[in-house]
Amino acid sequence: MNVSILKDAGLTEGEIKVYLALLEIGSTTSGPIIKKSGISRSIIYTILEKLMNKGLVSYLTKEKTKYFQAAQPNKLLEYIEEKEEKIRQSKGEIEKILPILIKKQESAKQSEVQLYQGLKGVRTAYEYVYSRLKKREEFCFLGISPILSNDQEAYWKKDQKIRIKAGIKCRLLFNKDTPKWMVKDRNKYKDCKARLMTSEIKTPAMFMTYKDIILIVQQVPAAIAIEIINQDIKDSFQAYFEEFWKKTKSFKSKS
After folding, report:
1. How far apart are CA 240 and CA 203, in angstroms?
2. pLDDT below 50 — which residues of the chain?
3. Could you read off the pLDDT of 181-229 as tens digits, one per residue?
4. What sign does the dihedral 144-145-146-152 (CA atoms) show?
5. Cα–Cα distance measured from residue 52 to residue 209, given in angstroms and rounded to the nearest whole number
6. What residue spans define the domains of the chain?
7. Are the CB atoms for 130 and 166 separated by under 8 Å?
8. Which of 6, 26, 49, 200 is the most buried if burial means most Cβ atoms within 10 Å?
9. DSSP secondary structure letters along 97-151
């Protein structure tokens, strides 16, 4: 049986072993549970107590001895449903205080440089644009390499729905060796202008500019992003972007 499903439901490895042992044994004292599950005597009662708190184990006392029993397997569904309901409630509460938390973070400005690692970290750094830009404002990307993986392409399409809904514009400068079909595709999206750079220059990183922020992103060999909040530095990178942009032409659909 694939016990990883039970792990995804929130049970620890020890809890899974004890619960499955009880399902097979039936009502029993701790001794047979320890033998069947392989769980140490020193922690068996801690695990049993956690399972009881989750509604997956119960006990009764006979002649001053506790006999434990697994709840019906359908209790697992009830347990998951309760977790989902708590998550929904927590999400609702967080959504209420999110604007306050964002204002606190922006007002604090503890650091003007932030490092993000891994693909999820890079995407988090990029997605801050939606909390910082207002409708009709713009971000720019310079030095974009072709995005060919299915996962990245799916992320692009999903992100465009968010960008368009937010009413945010973007200009994209792709490296010269980018396939034309890709640039053509990007121009199909509302308020997205994509062009091919005329220069042969290619760098391992690409640069995103908006507001007073410059985001430097490298995707290979390891995904990493450096965010710098500084108007002068951002303006410097923006000037380079505009210079490259002036040397390009609008991408024609027939290209």
Report:
1. 14
2. 253-255
3. 999 999 999 999 999 998 888 778 999 999 999 999 998 888 999 999 9
4. negative
5. 53
6. 4-73, 111-246
7. yes
8. 6
9. HHHHHHHHHHHH---SEEEEEHHHHHHHHHHTHHHHPPTT-EEEEEEEPP--SHH
Q: Could you tell me which CATH number the domain at 111-246 has? A: 3.30.870.10
**What pLDDT shows up at residue 58?**
92
What is the DSSP-derived secondary structure letter of residue 90? H
Q: How far apart are CA 40 and CA 255, in angstroms?
A: 70
* CB 152 within 8 Å of CB 174: no
Cβ pair 78, 88 in contact under 8 A: no
Tokens of 4: 């990883």
User: At how many degrees (to 10) do helices 30-37 and 41-53 cross?
Assistant: 100
Q: Tell me, what DSSP letter sits at residue 72?
A: P
Instruction: Note the CATH number of domain 4-73.
Output: 1.10.10.10
What are the structure tokens assigned to 248, written together? 């390009």
